[in-house]
Amino acid sequence: MKNTPQIIGVRALLTFVVFAWTPQQMFAHHILASKDPQINHPGDPYPWKAVIITEIMADPSPPRELPEVEFIELYNRSSLAIPLENWHISDPSRSASLPDVILDAHEYLVITSKTTGFTGDNIILVPNLPSLNNAGDSLLLTDPTGKGIDFVAYTDHWYRDAQRGEGGWSLEVIDLENTCEEMGNWSVSEDEHGGTPGQQNSIAASNPDVAPPEVLSVFPIDKFTLRVSFNEKLTTTALSPAHWAVTPALEVASTFFADSSLSNINLQFSQPISAGVFYALTVHNIASCAGNVLNESRVVHFALPEVARPGDIVINELLFNPIPNGVDFVELFNASQKYVDLNGWAIGAVNSDGELEKAIIHHPTFIHPGNYLAFSSDNTKLQSQYLAADTTLVQLDIPAYPDDHGVVVLFDDGDSVIDRFEYDSDLHNIFVRDPEGVSLERVSPNDPADRASNWTSASSSAGFATPGRQNSVLHGDPGSERPIAVVPSAFTPLSGQPNFAEIRYHFAQAGYIATVDVYDNRGMLIRHLANSAVLGAEGMLRWEGDNDNGHRVQSGYYMIWFQVFAADGTLRLFRHPVAISPRY
Asked: For residues 328 and 143, what is the distance between their CA atoms, to the nearest angstrom?
């Protein structure tokens, strides 16, 4: 029986005499009592975003006060009631057909595989609803003709709250009219129950899209095709080749949307992308579906990924004994001349039972020649404790590494071992009394990981760890027979140009213990700059012309005393003059 306007009222009146219907039909029948006499017929065309996904409960465990079951909430943005029979909700692995129900204009509908525990009459049962992945999934809503009406590709980053992202809280849309923006228009529910199924979202607010689209990533998917991903949906005008230019030159033969998100565009070139070449892609005048235009050109870079072999990508630094409330991290270094995509690679650990645990990288992650990437479960915590840049950190739920002894294993996307490091707390510098919060750094990426002499503690002068940066203990050349330099040799504190002196050091190896002092021309000690500091192979200290009391010293000549003590008992002393100029 079709849902024509002439029979809606009759079917609603008959609800109390039809007892043989299934629970699913009972739910459907109740919802069919539309308050709006205007209705879209099944054959009518439905515009993009006529019905939208407004709430997602992907991880209901542990529950708050809602049923411990996944659900998806829909909202009808149109002014007409819409019959949902033969509509589909799909993820990449499964599709479910919606039952014979009508969604009234400006009303909510909750779809779930188990209705037990829910209250309200706008809940429908869809037993084969796709399972929602906790870390992220893509959901496509299609009408009976197969036309996409809404698409949401969420990730666990959308929660913006690590604690509530652990489960029991839903993701909600902020502004129902902001239909172009992705992550910027979603966040975790603020309702004490953990979500608002079938009701106005707890975070509902005006959140207009006024910003131009931005490029999130760019990577080749084969030798002739480049995938460019944006942070929001685009208009079809973005497909014009006039918006794209590549240097060194590659001719754009065609462009098309890669999927239903309308935020990923594939560029197909007339000639292949060359290996070992670092390309620049210039993007300009791209418009979002909200009408915001990227007027200024954006330049992003890409390269054709190559197959990595053992020795190309190495385990370069490891923090396995973090400070309280800190996090472990594993740093990788690209010791080759290849551009390598780590998508599908895994960082593993061997636990105390001899079992292997893995954390797999599930998205394109490029590491360029000579570059570093550090992986941790919480980059915010890592940056609060060590100097690290966003561009060199990758959030990944890496295994927990024991504080005394363990094994780190790096696998490629074919599950081959690329590098392996069996660490021990005894590898720390003998002068490090408490290794908590101190990382182990690889001295040379070209020497094997199983050589104990190739690992030592990060220097104190570098903050005891260098995630995503050059190791403080990287093997270097002495540079000169005098590894200490003071630059400049004269300065004026506070107002001068320059107004401080750098004491630069460069040794053939890391791990020296340094004491650095400043004496005046009478031989009186006025400033301690370092006391038993563990040095890297190179670095610097800074003197701003002050004494240990924080007062500025008088103009005149001073002497820097730089003493270094090696593990073999060798003591070396370097003296270097520096002058403080009078103010004019």
From this structure: 47
